Amino acid sequence: MVLQSVKKTKRGVTLPPASLILCSIHYVYIEIDHKSGFCYGVVRAIQTAEQMLDAGELFSLGEIVHNDRELDRLKKKGLQVLSYDGLATLRDKKVLIRAHGEPPETYRTARDRRLTIVDCTCPVVLKLQERIKACYAELKTQNGQLLIFGKRGHAEVNGLIGQLGGDALVVENVAQLDAVDFSRPVRLFSQTTNSPQAFRALCEAVKARMHPGVSFEASNTICGQVAGRQPQLAAFAARHDVVLFVSGRKSSNGQVLFAACRSANPRSYLIEDAGEIEAGWFTACRSVGVCGATSTPKWLMEEVAATVANREDIP
User: Fold this and answer.
1) Nearest CA to 267 among 246, 288, 253, 248?
2) Is 130 marked active-site?
């Protein structure tokens, strides 16, 4: 990218789509990672929600995205977030199923309540649900166990175990493998937004504990978009003095990707919005990288970059 030696005050800087140069005592280069931001599943869900809101009333079962600022924007357009208890009392309304997916029980409740389902389950998650159901049917004939590497209580994980009537073990880390019976066959799948490195470590730990002659198979079902972002984000973080990682703290994917940034650059900071920026982070800083999770909107990253450019207390 060409550096433009145009004298500007901080407050006179404008923000191009990808990056900007600003001038105070010296030039500071601010770059927004163009590969960060919404994944396909989230883009699809939000675009669908906006189209439906243009036509009338719409409810979302749970938060459509784990980002409070984006959720606030959609609420202002009329989106109403519905709890699971609320679903059982609603009738004759349109309800959006977010990208995380849902268990069959949700669809049965919707039919009973005469609700119109707008299904935005991510195709990657939908395929995983089908694979797990097929595997489970085979395992039942072998007295086997199905393991899901994921976060307990996460919407996607709830949707996955719901396909099996709850008959699956959810493990978040190697320490939780004590619940597994290694004398029985084991099949392992992963939540789509997990860390590939952590999944590989879990696979090795399971292999080491399996009884001789007992079968074990692992399916790496982590989304390719998520898996590919970790090395790319680590490289992005390494080439900047300071990194601002923009993400909702409830985002599992955000935690995984922020860890990749932090490992490559200790001066990486997780923020939910520009209001959390601290001037002290930018001492002896010539280069700032702004990036985010698959649940982070581009407009929010741009807002963060503009704030760095315009704040008088940042060196």
Assistant:
1) 288
2) no
